[in-house]
């Protein structure tokens, strides 16, 4: 239709441009010239014809000027029409063919197909629904760092009694599903300023048979991951449900080893070691706000009530099957002795005594522009129950900041992150609840220093090489320094130093629980949905440190426990891993 219109206008312009002057000019030339008998009549005739010719020329010039003006106006109109049709092509081409008389006129004879979305989504009843997922499966060859010289002694209840002979420490092969998940999200437009949103997401076990884990957690249950409902608009979004805390989210883009054996959560956000992440976790029964991105700036804040009937948060939160923070009583069995209850009285009705918290507030902001990414974050846990550490109940907090910069010309990215953890300890015994005195020599939850340094180099369009170093500094003390308690659970006897009975003061800052984690690896992009990777990681614990490798993120964690569940501090954990990811 567009081509027909343009050709019609062009033909009309050609028609206007035909030189009618030539026809008028030919007429006097066709008239026969007659010889006049007298020179007087010949002269008068010549003057008359000359005057007539001049008049015809002037008239023709005026006509041509008018036609030329008309031609220019039509050309200008034709240009505007063509420009307008070019700018509107996409709108008419993506409209439903034949949906209106206007679209039928402006659509080409053969309409173009709408570009297919990269997402698995559809719209039903005005609600757009998307199915998405992530798969990460690897083969690992790992070493728990336990040698025969470190193996546990005789364990009651085992046959034969010399159980260390049954140990399979050292290197071990394993297949791991690394936080693979499946989810459904959707949105529904309420009005021009408000849209309803929802999401439910579940972890999928690709390599192991799903079931309840040792801490009674059902992480493979439907909706076990980020799941919420909320509204969004130009002002941002408000959501309610459960979500990874903003404190965690800001650091994830900076870790090229996320969910591998070299995952940063083995140290960062981890206040005591082992396979836990007090300050990098998913927060249940929460409400949060997410700002829109403005000139590269973004912010988010989350709050969750403790909803706990126990004053010390020692009970399960109302409506939850687990202790807040994921720490709770374990089931003791000879079939799985790793599930050892930690200082829990069988008759205790408040089993959440190993890090359960009350109210939690988490906030973060980021800035991203021209290859630079920076962030700051803070998280506060109120009334954290640490009676298993002989330190009672008190507040804990963490803060971090970091920056990353990418050189586009070289494909080089450098990252630095700093973090500090703080436990706000009591200094007296409460007459009401009998909270013990908090000695600094028992405080491993205050860690003034942790750093993370990452360097990534893009070797080609599809290959990226990365290396990192994460350091955990020393803490003032460790619960292991307590060797006896009174009736209130207060520590009244401490470990000795060089054969001399120690005191709380003499033991401060004597515990060497620092650690260094190293990782090196390569990732290759196969398609926009698939990639492969190879990683080597090592956790070098100092004498009193007990950090694991691949904690929280990797499906099968490398810990410093033998087959009886006995943990040994100061081990050197390591492993190599090769895996594949698939996203849809």
Task: Provide a concise account of the structure shown.
The chain has about 575 residues and is an alpha+beta fold.
Overview of this protein structure:
By secondary structure, the chain is an alpha+beta fold. The chain has a domain of 88 residues. Helix content is 15%, strand content 34%. It is built from six helices and 20 strands. The strands form two sheets. The chain has a 16-stranded antiparallel β-barrel. β6 and β7 form a beta hairpin. α1 packs antiparallel against α3 and α2 runs antiparallel to α3. The longest helix has 49 residues. The radius of gyration is 39 Å and the shape is elongated. About 12% of the residues have low confidence.
Which properties best describe this structure?
584 residues; alpha+beta; 16-stranded antiparallel barrel; two-stranded antiparallel sheet; 6 helices; 20 strands
Task: Give the helix/strand layout.
Elements: H1 2-16, H2 21-30, H3 39-87, H4 89-94, H5 101-106, E1 120-124, E2 127-143, E3 171-177, E4 181-191, E5 194-203, E6 227-233, E7 236-244, H6 246-249, E8 282-290, E9 297-304, E10 360-369, E11 372-385, E12 393-407, E13 412-424, E14 447-458, E15 463-472, E16 482-485, E17 491-494, E18 515-525, E19 530-541, E20 572-583
Helix pairs in contact: 1-3, 2-3
């Amino acid at each position: 239709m567009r081509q027909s219109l343009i050709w019609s206008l062009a033909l009309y312009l050609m028609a206007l441009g035909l030189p009618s002057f030539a026809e008028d000019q030919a007429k006097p030339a066709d008239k026969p010239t007659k010889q006049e008998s007298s020179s007087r009549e010949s002269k008068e005739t010549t003057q008359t014809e000359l005057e007539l010719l001049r008049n015809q020329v002037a008239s023709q010039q005026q006509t041509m000027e008018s036609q030329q003006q008309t031609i220019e106006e039509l050309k200008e109109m034709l240009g505007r029409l063509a420009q307008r049709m070019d700018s509107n092509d996409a709108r008419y081409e993506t409209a439903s063919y034949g949906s209106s008389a206007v679209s039928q006129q402006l659509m080409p004879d053969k309409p173009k197909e709408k570009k297919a979305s990269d997402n698995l989504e559809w719209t039903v009843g005005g609600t757009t629904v998307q199915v998405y997922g992530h798969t990460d499966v690897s083969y690992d060859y790992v070493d728990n760092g336990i040698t025969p010289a470190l193996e546990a002694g005789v364990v009651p209840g085992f046959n034969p009694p010399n159980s260390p002979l049954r140990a399979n420490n050292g290197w071990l092969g394993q297949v791991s599903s690394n936080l693979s998940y499946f989810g459904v999200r959707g949105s529904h437009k309420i009005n021009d300023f408000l849209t309803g949103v929802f999401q439910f997401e579940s972890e999928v076990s690709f390599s192991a048979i799903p079931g309840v884990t040792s801490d009674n957690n059902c992480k493979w249950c439907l909706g076990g991951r980020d799941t919420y409902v909320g509204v969004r608009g130009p002002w941002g979004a408000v959501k309610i449900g459960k979500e990874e805390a903003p404190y965690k989210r800001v650091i994830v883009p900076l870790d090229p080893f996320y969910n591998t054996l070299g995952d940063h959560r083995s140290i960062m956000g981890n206040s005591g070691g082992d396979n836990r992440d007090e300050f990098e976790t998913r927060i249940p029964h929460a409400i949060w706000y997410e700002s829109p991105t403005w000139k590269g700036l973004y912010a988010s804040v989350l709050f969750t009530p403790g909803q706990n009937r126990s004053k010390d948060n020692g009970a399960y939160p109302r409506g939850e099957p687990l202790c807040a923070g994921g720490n709770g009583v374990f089931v003791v069995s000879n079939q799985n002795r790793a599930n050892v209850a930690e200082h829990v009285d069988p008759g205790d009705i408040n089993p959440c005594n190993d890090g359960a918290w009350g109210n939690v507030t988490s906030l973060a902001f980021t800035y991203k522009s021209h290859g630079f990414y920076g962030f700051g974050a803070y998280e506060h846990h109120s009334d954290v129950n640490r009676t298993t550490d002989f330190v009672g109940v008190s507040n804990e907090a963490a803060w971090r900041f970091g920056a990353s910069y990418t050189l586009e010309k070289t494909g080089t990215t450098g990252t630095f992150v700093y973090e500090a953890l703080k436990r706000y300890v009591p200094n007296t015994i409460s007459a009401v609840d009998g909270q013990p005195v908090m000695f600094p020599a028992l405080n491993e939850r205050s860690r003034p220093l942790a750093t993370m340094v990452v360097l990534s180099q893009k070797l080609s369009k599809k290959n990226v090489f990365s290396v990192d170093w994460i350091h955990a500094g020393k803490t003032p003390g460790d619960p292991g320094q307590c060797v006896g308690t009174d009736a209130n659970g207060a520590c009244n006897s401490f470990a000795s130093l060089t054969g001399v009975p120690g005191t709380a003061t003499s033991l401060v800052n004597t515990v060497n629980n620092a650690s260094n984690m190293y990782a090196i690896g390569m990732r290759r992009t196969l398609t926009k949905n698939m990639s492969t990777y190879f990683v080597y990681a090592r956790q070098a614990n100092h004498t009193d440190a007990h950090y694991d490798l691949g904690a929280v993120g990797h499906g099968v964690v490398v810990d410093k426990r033998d087959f009886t569940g006995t943990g040994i501090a100061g081990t050197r954990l390591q492993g190599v891993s090769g895996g594949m990811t698939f996203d849809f």
